[in-house]
Amino acid sequence: AAECPPAVAAALRHAAAVRAVEAHLLNRELARVLDAAQSAGIDVLVIKGAAIAHTHYPQPHLRPRGDSDVMVRTADRDRLAAVLRSCGYTPSGAVDGSLVTHQAQWTRALGRDLEHTLDVHWEAFNPRAFAGVSTATELIDRSVPVPALAASGRAPHPVHALLLACVHRVAHHAGDGDLLWLYDIRLLAESLWDAEGAEFVVLATGRRVAAVC
């Protein structure tokens, strides 16, 4: 850092400050949605980047993301949709259908060209080859609290979070060399106790995604 040219250091400081402010606004908005869903009696699980940012990174803004991913049980999809509409969200025009996708996208403008995009999943992955690797009920029942995000915030147990991260990189980003996915996997893997690592191996093998992992 001491050898970094002043102009470059200033640009990096500015970029970091912008990222920190944006992350704060997105996380505050996500917390508002989670609390509204809890008040409606809906279990909502925060997954992927939004969860890992709060459970495995020193500061949430150090894990960049373009949206927030959450998961609900299939039976709660319509109820959560009503909550999102009451919170000012509108659905995207994406194709739906049980054989096409297992998620829906909602957006809300936050002002100053900042928008919060919420991806609501009821299955973990869209490709049929990975259907049933992890169910919403299984993930919600084993979830852990994330008080740093919201009083009602919950994320997958690290064993399940690692499985999701490994499979997601192949199922949704095959061939993508983005180091972000690999760094998430590294942080999740290093956080496991020995017994949890052994559980992960059994889980990946039993779900027939050992080669992917």
Task: Summarize the helices and strands and which ones pair or pack.
Elements: H1 6-39, E1 45-47, H2 48-55, E2 68-71, H3 77-86, E3 90-91, E4 103-111, E5 114-121, H4 136-141, E6 144-145, E7 154-155, H5 158-171, H6 179-191, H7 194-206
Parallel strand pairs: 2-5
Antiparallel strand pairs: 1-2, 3-4, 4-5, 6-7
Helix pairs in contact: 5-6, 5-7
State which percent range the strand residues make up.
5-15%
Helix/strand/pairing class, anyone? alpha+beta
Shape: globular
Main sheet overview: 5 strands, mixed
Q: How large is the radius of gyration?
A: 18 Å
Between the first and last Cα atoms, what is the distance in angstroms?
36 Å
Give a structural overview.
The chain has 213 residues and is of the alpha+beta class. Helices cover 46% and strands 14% of the residues. The protein has seven helices and seven strands; from the N terminus they run αβαβαβββαββααα. The chain has a five-stranded mixed beta sheet. Strands 6-7 form a two-stranded antiparallel sheet. The protein is globular and about 55 Å long.
Quick take:
With 213 residues, the protein is α+β, with helices and mostly antiparallel strands.
Which descriptors would you attach to this protein?
alpha+beta; 5-stranded mixed β-sheet; single chain; two-stranded antiparallel sheet; 213 residues
